[in-house]
Amino acid sequence: MPYISVARSGKCTIGTGFKMNNGLKSNPIGPPQRSVIFVAPGAQLRIGENVGISQTAIVCFHKITIGNNVRIGAGSRIYDTDFHSLIPANRMDRISDETHTVMKPVELKDNVFIGAHSTILKGTTIGENSIIGACSVVTKSVPDNEIWAGNPAKFIKKLCAVNEIA
C-alpha cells in the first residue's frame, strides 16, 4: 500500500489511467519501499492522465504539476522545497526554519520519462518528451525534446522527433 497524505487545505488531483507500483514484487529494480504522495497545507499537486510511477516519493509543499503520459522510474523523488532554511541560524528554531524555507513549483510536461532513482528538485521544469537518465539530480529546467543525465543533470542529446533519437 502507498503512503498518501493530503492536508485538509491541500489539493491533489489525479487523472484517469494512473498506475502505481509498490515494492519489489511489482518492480524488481527497487528500492523495496512503497510510493509516497504528500501534499502539505495550501499546496497543490496535479497528476495528469495515464501517469505511471514506481516506488516514487512526491513531496509537495507548494505546487507540483505532472503532465499526461509521464513515467517516473522506481525510487525517484520529486521535491518542491528545500525542507529547511539554508541559513544555519534559522534552522535552530522550528518556526524560523519553516518561515525561511525556499519553495518553488515543479512541472513535468507531457510525455516525460524520469529514469529510476532520479531526484527532481524545486524550481525545475522538465520539457515535453524529455528524458532524465537514471540516478540523475535535476537542479535546473530541461527544454522540450532533450535527454539529460548526471549529478547534476546535464544535456546529453536532442531528440529529433517524438519517435527517434538524434
Summarize the structure in words.
The chain is mainly beta and 166 residues long. It has a single domain (3-158), classed as Hexapeptide repeat proteins (UDP N-Acetylglucosamine Acyltransferase, domain 1, 3 Solenoid). The chain is built from 1 helix and 18 strands. It has one helix spanning 94-99; strands at residues 3-6, 11-14, 19-21, 36-39, 44-47, 52-54, 57-60, 63-66, 71-72, 77-79, 106-108, 113-114, 119-120, 125-126, 131-132, 137-138, 146-150, 153-158. The strands form 3 sheets. The chain has a 7-stranded mixed β-sheet, with no helix packed on it. Strands 1-4-7-10-13-16 form a 6-stranded parallel β-sheet, with no helix packed on it. It has a 5-stranded parallel β-sheet with strand order 2-5-8-11-14, with no helix packed on it. Strand 17 (146-150) and strand 18 form a beta hairpin. The protein is globular. It starts with a strand and ends in an 8-residue tail after the last strand.
**Percentage of residues in DSSP E strands:** 35-45%
Quote the CATH topology.
UDP N-Acetylglucosamine Acyltransferase, domain 1
Q: Kindly name the structural category.
A: mainly beta
Rg: 16 Å
The CATH class turns out to be Mainly Beta
Which strand order do you get reading across the main beta sheet?
3-6-9-12-15-17-18
Terminus-to-terminus distance = 40 Å
Show the helix and strand layout.
Layout: E1 3-6, E2 11-14, E3 19-21, E4 36-39, E5 44-47, E6 52-54, E7 57-60, E8 63-66, E9 71-72, E10 77-79, H1 94-99, E11 106-108, E12 113-114, E13 119-120, E14 125-126, E15 131-132, E16 137-138, E17 146-150, E18 153-158
